[in-house]
Amino acid sequence: MSADIVSSGMTTGGRFNRVKALLREGRPAFGVIATIPSVQTVQIMARSGLDWMLIDMEHGAIDAGTAHAMIAATTGTPLVPMVRVAATSTLAAKLPLDLGAMGINFPMITRREDAVAAVRAMRYPPEGERFWGPFLAPFRWGVSMREYLDVADDEVLTIATIEHVDALRTIHEVLATPGLDVAVIGPGDLATSMGLKGRVDHPDFLAVVAQLEAAIRDSPVVLGGAAPSPALANDMIARGYRFIAVGFDWLLLQRGLAAALDGVIR
Question: Which residues pair with 80 in a beta bridge?
């Protein structure tokens, strides 16, 4: 079935997913990438002014049971729980969605076919290929199963990570995929794909990022990225970013501890 029948996520949704509502209104949404398998950490982050949390099941030490507990820990708070998966497939997305995730971040999107697969993994037939089994999700969403099934397709966020230089050739085709909500530029893998591991200040890398930024800004898809400082976040907002990660949980913890010790006589 053609992906063209999938309605654009940028024109619907937002009743249950406040991040989708913020983005639809053109407002920035700030979040954190959670790699630490900790309900307690989530409880702290959920009351710290963040809009969203991305539970990292791609690189973090987080299994399905822990992911469910972390998602459930956001209940009754403003924090929107989402999950980063390790592959772009229905199989990778189905369990986090059934556990209550309100969005899925798919890795290494380089072709339109990748983006179409991501969108279809998020939606039930006939618009997509999501398997039926939402036993726990309605509890997190605060609705009946019937209502969840009625609204889930429109309320979930489909997030693509653009993190390979090959995506530059096909970025306009990727961004034209109906139902794709956010395109996040992933600097680590992008630089590595260019043979510039860790050299995110290299002129060639910055030139590619600028081209990707321009393409995403000119599309219906929201531009996303990481801003490890308030100054950088403000600069990125000025450049059109609206989906912004302020850091990883481990990095924020490390910085907080370092700040607590800064200047202490030992």
Answer: 52
